[in-house]
Design brief:
With 519 residues, this protein is an alpha/beta fold. It contains 13 helices and 20 strands. The structure holds ligand C2E and calcium ion (2 copies).
Length: 519
């Protein structure tokens, strides 16, 4: 019996994008939640401190009033005064006098028949005040109350005094403590069992905030779960699910874009064999007399599968996937064939063809151009090859290649001048006979953009160069007037004069313009 082993490939990319989205979502939620929770904790702690200070102040004034009673302790008048204090101080549950460690009378209970001994204090504060926390020693109820003994006055705090501080969220706690010895007066929430308040640095809670009032009372708010750790299981599940979903969505988008790119390569290869390319020609106009002096050949691809694809899109793909050389050969052949009669009739008329850097380094290209020029009987002087640097090329090695073209009387034009990596460096190294100023500069004429300043600089630079100066992308009369003023010898190209057109339209355009019927 044969055992088949199935090897399944793990879908690594979707998993990675899901994981990335998940980590970003978890991290972002964690940070945002933590920030929100910290602000809430701070607000709560400030409120609690304010409230606790109010309670403390209220109890203190009650005690001071009792201490300054003009009557004999536990006398009828003194007890009346103490009872009045209960009405005046809402956080005071009872107040009385202590003698030799025994409570002898209080506002609520009057003079005790039998004095009640006080248990040992939980803490003696720096100011000499003894403090009992949650004591039920004096009153036999299930209520636990806080007591302070200041001198001989015992004050019992109302068990409901701090109710307003309780926080509805069980993950939040607060400790009210004295600043000097960090003795804990009161705790709320999960932090019930503490005698000594931790300092802000010592707390183990992931989020904490402490502040103190002028009366040395401090409040520290703590959160035992913060950020995503405070989310419920179902909330966490929704978050994980949503981020996985968006991670997968993102992956599908990227995958689709990549597939489209790959399909473009596939269809571009087909287009080369099925010859789906055509050429349009855009006239180049001498600005001084508006006469056409040449054309630029621009490739067009009307794909059976993809429809019309813009040249700047597919040329880039062709360059990347090594298909550009075949396209360039086709463009050269087609444009020379179509322009043959026009070039023959007008010996000064030029044909410009775009080349990629890869074309320039293709040693078979120049022989191909020369062969085609011979085949279509085109003079070398009528040919211009436009080069543009989409990537930083080695201008020194290119200069040798450019030299071979110029030695064959073929002109080289620096396309898109003013953009890219090193046009000025190129100018120095390449012996170009023409410069084409990029349309972004032309179109900055008459605008306030920074390019206007650069344009002025480029104009003065161009004035000093002994090359043909072409301005592309001329769309308005204002741009044409500006160029004419600063560069009267300029050649222009743009929609103001003519859009790229097929050869038959070009021929009727040329016959009109040369007969004085031009624009
Ligand atoms: P490019 O060489 O700078 O060509 C000029 C582009 O500007 C052309 O776009 C042209 O249609 C457009 N244009 C002309 N006048 C105006 C105007 O007044 N305003 C505006 N906004 N645009 C104007 P196109 O034909 O889409 O070509 C885009 C780019 O594709 C070309 O830029 C060139 O880099 C590349 N390309 C086109 N054909 C070829 C080719 O045969 N070979 C190579 N290697 N690249 C080509
Ligand atoms: Ca060009
Ligand atoms: Ca250009």
């Amino acid at each position: 019996m044969q055992v088949k082993v199935f090897s399944k490939r793990l879908p690594v990319e979707p998993i990675i994008s899901v994981l990335i989205c998940l980590s970003i979502a978890l991290w972002a939620t964690h940070v945002v939640l933590q920030k929100k929770q910290w602000t809430a904790l701070k607000n709560y702690s400030d409120y609690a401190l304010n409230y606790a200070s109010g309670v403390t102040a209220d109890l203190k004034t009650g005690v001071v009033s009792a201490q300054s009673s003009p009557y004999t302790a536990c006398s009828h008048n003194d007890l009346e005064l103490l009872r009045d204090l209960l009405w005046q101080h809402k956080y005071l549950k009872d107040i009385g006098h202590v003698q030799n460690g025994n409570l002898i009378c209080s506002a609520e209970r009057g003079v005790l028949k039998e004095a009640v001994a006080l248990p040992p204090a939980d803490a003696v504060l720096n100011n000499g005040v003894s403090f009992w926390r949650n004591s039920s020693a004096l009153i036999r109820t299930h209520f636990e109350m806080d007591m302070t003994l200041t001198g001989s006055v015992l004050a019992i705090t109302s068990p409901f005094a701090f109710d307003a501080i309780r926080y509805p969220d069980p993950t939040v706690s607060a400790i009210i403590y004295s600043k000097n010895n960090r003795y804990v007066f009161k705790t709320f929430g999960f932090n019930q069992q503490r005698d000594l308040a931790p300092s802000a640095k010592m707390t183990s809670a992931p989020l904490s905030y402490a502040s103190c009032s002028e009366v040395n009372v401090c409040v520290m708010g703590e959160r035992d779960r913060a950020g995503i750790f405070s989310l419920s299981f179902s909330q966490l599940l929704i978050l994980v699910f949503a981020s996985c979903l968006s991670g997968f969505g993102l992956y599908s988008l990227v995958h689709k874009a990549r597939k489209h790119r790959h399909s473009m390569v596939y269809h571009l290869k087909n287009a080369i064999t099925k010859d789906e390319f055509s050429i349009v020609f855009q006239p180049k106009i001498r600005l001084s007399d508006s006469m056409p002096v040449g054309v630029e050949a621009l490739v067009r691809w009307d794909s059976h599968a993809l429809g019309v694809v813009r040249p700047d899109v597919f040329i880039e793909v062709a360059e990347k996937y090594g298909l550009i050389r075949k396209i360039t050969h086709r463009v050269i052949d087609l444009s020379m064939a179509q322009m043959q009669t026009t070039l023959d009739a007008k010996p000064d008329f030029t044909l410009s063809i775009n080349l990629s850097i890869q074309d320039l380094t293709d040693l078979s290209l120049l022989p191909f151009i020369l062969a085609k020029a011979k085949q279509y009987k085109i003079q070398h002087e009528q040919l211009v090859f436009e080069i543009t640097e989409r990537s930083a090329g080695d201008s020194v090695s290119l200069s040798d290649i450019v030299k071979q073209y110029t030695e064959a009387d073929i002109s080289i034009s620096l396309d898109d001048f003013g953009t890219g990596y090193s046009n000025l460096a190129w100018l120095g190294h390449l012996n170009a006979s023409e410069i084409k100023v990029d349309k972004s500069f032309t179109q900055s004429i008459g605008t306030d953009s920074i390019n206007q300043t650069m344009l002025d600089a480029i104009f003065s630079l161009l004035q000093r160069l002994n090359v043909v100066r072409v301005f592309e992308g001329v769309e308005t009369q204002e741009q044409a007037d500006y160029i004419l003023k600063y560069c009267p010898q300029a050649i222009v190209q743009g929609w103001l004069y003519a859009k790229p057109m097929p050869i038959d339209q070009l021929q009727s355009y040329l016959s009109q313009t040369t007969n004085g019927l031009g624009r």
